[in-house]
Sequence to fold (355 residues):
Amino acid sequence: MTKPSLHPREVLLGAQGASGFLPVCDHYSGVEARMKKSLQLQAEMSEEFGACMFDVTLDCEDGAPAGAEVEQAHCVVVLANAALAGSRSQHVRNRVGARLHAVDHPSFDSDVAIVAAGAAASLAYVMIPKVESVADVDIAVAAIDAAVGDKRQSPLPLHVLIESPAAVQRAFEIAAHARVESVSFGLMDFVSAHGGAIPSTAMGVRSDQDAVTLDQFHHPLVVRAKLEIASACHASGKVPSHCVVTEFRDRRALEQAARVAANAFGYTRMWSIHPDQIRPILKAFSPTEAEVELACNIVLEAARQEWAPISMAGKLHDRASYRYFWQLLERANQTGCTLPDEMHAYFSTDLSLAS
Fold:
């Protein structure tokens, strides 16, 4: 199949198309040795799949050594720039971001001056934690843009972390900000912000046999917060990113959490805090083989009919269903699913690599 002249993204997605191309897994690492291993694993999996399968967020905040904030920031710059230089020799540009301190933290200004300025062209995004309002986003944008200057061709996207009840109430305003690309939910801080009103069980994932414990998918206040953030993101065409699962040795808990986050809560991305979590997250966010086959058949037939309505297996399909099935194929491509040869032309150019 020759490369189509009109791409489904142009036909079907419109203004919300730009938000759909982030990898489904965002892996956080803050200790230098682990950051290096994470970047190496990213390169290895990119070679394996022919695409960037997960983001690596280099952490200047909670995951970094306390008291060495300036040294950590310089280390992040070196690693981010080295990762970009290494990916230039490959067909895939690996995506690296950096989590800075919150805008009201004493280290925020130095983080911006060192990281945003020193790795401006290498970073795919910057994560800002503890965002409470649109005003915090504006502060971050102004500081980052001043530091970056003309070192990038396009503005540096922001990923923001909502961690308090007050911030959840402003989720729709925050997600609507033009520079916000993704919104994450900070479960641990959210629970602790309630002063003991939410039990610690709400930070975990209950077992399949447990129908009583109020875990993070069953406590009403936590469920409400997750749904508010997911809804806010989808309302503005942004990417909702689910919180970590701290039981990183418990593969069952991780897989269960990832499936529920994707299928029941509307999240299209999830944090990883251990390399063993990456592939299970990819699997949980992947469509099934049957879903991929059906989506391929519908999208290819729609393209042959120049996106006019079609009938398949006794069901009518038009651009509304085409959009759904195309987005399913985007997710299949992001998660390493095998696609038929006829679909490869659509994915020969990774539109997420623009910086």
Q: What stands out?
A: Strands lie at 25-29, 55-59, 96-99, 125-128, 158-162, 180-185, 239-242, 269-272, 310-312, 315-317. The two ends are 29 Å apart (CA to CA). The chain has 13 helices and ten strands. The chain has two domains: 23-284, 289-353.
